[in-house]
Amino acid sequence: MPTSLPHIVEECRGVLFVYSDSTVVRSENPSFPVPVHDDGSVEWKDVQFDPINNLSLRLYKPRHVTSKLPIFFYFHGGGFCIGSRTWPNCQNYCFRLASELPAIVIAPDYRLAPEHRLPGAIDDSIACLLWLQKQAAGFNSDPWLLDYADFKRVVVSGDSAGGTIAHHLAVRFGSTSGRTELEPVQIKGYVQLMPFFGGVERTRSEAQCPKEAFLNLELNDRYWRLSLPIGADFDHPFANPFGPDSPPLEPVELAPTLVVVGERDLLTDRSVDYANRLKQMGKPVEVAEFKGQQHGFFTINPWSESSAELMRMLRRFVEEVGVRSS
């Protein structure tokens, strides 16, 4: 009997291909081949934070620094399946963060699915925060961090899957023991940019999402199929903070959190529900909706007016949580 050749069964934005024999092929090219806008006002370099898994982060700082700056983490998106600190859309966004907040920006990579299903990305992100703790404690500290960063003024942010990572980090370190584990690092706030949450029951914004959307329901579900543990449904605690098996969030001592949503994003209803439930628990959560915007507008076009508005909002948030010195 003739055997059929392996064929593509899953594809993500032209850079990830999963074949019928479980082979995974990745393109070396970014999914968003946009020009890099580097005007020289921000310096950057790559630093390895996990030699075992060969994971690095990209460190950014304004070229001219006169005082210690807050640290602003940016965990990239991509449904836990694609994306990289090296992609130009990510780099453009980080340039603007470093310049306009201003801040020392840390943009880490993490292991991607399906080769490394969740909790791989979450574990790697925890490891990155613990790496920062070692930097603050003086273990082989990078001179940029040692000379220019204030470890007591840290904000953790991420977009899409990176926003989901920010949630899990807030839970992981949202206790007395968690804060002690990070000392002398102090996380002052979290920013979840269109967080990538899921669930078995469809929301209105998911059900009504047009197929031509940047993130549509088909791609949304594909990301979860490839990233969740095999056999898990979309109510798994990695995807749904309020799923039947998810840990209760009432005990979490949540730092001030900003949740950013886009009016045309299929994830909007989940994000707003997430924020509202936390507020009902008495958590310090704020929601900001961008009218007319779809998923990832700030990395698709980081120089748009909506992105400029987001930058102003982030700067205000950093100031309000006491991260940025007056």
UniProtKB/TrEMBL annotation:
<dbReference type="Pfam" id="PF07859">
    <property type="entry name" value="Abhydrolase_3"/>
</dbReference>
<dbReference type="InterPro" id="IPR033140">
    <property type="entry name" value="Lipase_GDXG_put_SER_AS"/>
</dbReference>
<dbReference type="InterPro" id="IPR029058">
    <property type="entry name" value="AB_hydrolase_fold"/>
</dbReference>
<dbReference type="InterPro" id="IPR013094">
    <property type="entry name" value="AB_hydrolase_3"/>
</dbReference>
<dbReference type="GO" id="GO:0016787">
    <property type="term" value="F:hydrolase activity"/>
</dbReference>
<dbReference type="InterPro" id="IPR050466">
    <property type="entry name" value="Carboxylest/Gibb_receptor"/>
</dbReference>
<feature type="domain" description="Alpha/beta hydrolase fold-3">
    <location>
        <begin position="73"/>
        <end position="298"/>
    </location>
</feature>
<feature type="active site">
    <location>
        <position position="160"/>
    </location>
</feature>
<protein>
    <submittedName>
        <fullName>Alpha/beta-Hydrolases superfamily protein</fullName>
    </submittedName>
</protein>
